[in-house]
Amino acid sequence: MRLNKLALALCLAALALPMSAMAQDAAATPEAPASNLSWNVELNSDYVFRGITQTDFDPALQGGLDYAFGDSGWFVGTWLSNVKFGTDTALEYDTYVGWAGDLNDSVNLSVMLDRYNYSGEDVGQWDFNELIGKLTIKSNYALTVAYSNDWANSGTSSLYTQLTGTWALPNDFSLNAGVGHTNLDSIFGADYSDYNIGISRQFGPVNAALNFYDTSYNVRASDRVVLTFKFGG
């Protein structure tokens, strides 16, 4: 949940006053409501999806917009990125709807239906749907399962599972790592796994991250370090 800067400033100012004045100010100044609209913009040295480059190892500019329906847990959103498969630079634009909520004090569940849309000569017929579920435990560990009955409009189903973890490091750095597995026998000829490990840190409004990606599959695998700068609000 994002911290409301205005509410924080009001609280700090009130703590400097006597208790009677604090009560009076609290009654006179209502807390500003949190916005249901959020956004993010990313600049990446490569767009890596499940261990495989989507931009032929070129940089990617990405952005997303989400809207949450109050406290219901329901949300909708869209996300865009440039992609490059072969010689054609194209656009991926995802649209999704989902629900997220806490099951208890330690466990959060989110379920989302994502529509992957592509424009461009090489990828214009690849549009497909995917159902994605994510279980997050104590904000540090997550299990993601994604299923599509018609991956990339290919007529074959796909199943992706991933385990990730995040740990705090000194000086406000964070360490993250993950391992995933893709089942797409009829397209790749074999299942494959992907791996990643990296560090990140918040610098004012910018989150900077450095991640290394690799896979057990030897075609279009990233197998390299990716630098990311992310802005959000």
Description of the structure:
It is built from 3 helices and 14 strands. With 233 residues, the chain is mainly beta. It folds into 2 domains: 1-34, no CATH class; 36-232, Porin, CATH 2.40.160. The protein has a 12-stranded antiparallel beta barrel with strand order 1-4-5-6-7-8-9-10-11-12-13-14. It has a two-stranded antiparallel ribbon with strand order 2-3. The longest helix has 11 residues, at 5-15. The chain is globular. The termini are close together.
Summarize the structure.
With 233 residues, this protein is mainly beta. It has helices at residues 5-15, 19-28, 185-188, and strands at 37-44, 48-49, 52-53, 60-68, 74-85, 88-102, 107-119, 128-137, 141-148, 158-168, 173-183, 192-203, 206-215, 224-232.
* Total helical segments: 3
Order of strands across the main sheet = 1-4-5-6-7-8-9-10-11-12-13-14
CATH superfamily of the largest domain: Inverse autotransporter, beta-domain
* Whole-number total of structural domains: 2
Low-confidence stretches: 1-29
Question: Percentage of helical residues?
Answer: 10-25%
Structural class: mainly beta
The CATH topology of the largest domain = Porin
End-to-end Cα distance = 11 Å
Please outline the major beta sheet. 12 strands, antiparallel, barrel
Estimate the global geometry from the Cα principal axes: globular
Residue fraction in strands: over 45%
Q: Tally the beta strands.
A: 14
CATH architecture of the largest domain: Beta Barrel
Rg is 21 Å
CATH class of the largest domain: Mainly Beta
Q: Could you give the order of the helices and strands?
A: HHEEEEEEEEEEEHEEE
Residue-averaged pLDDT, rounded?
Answer: 84
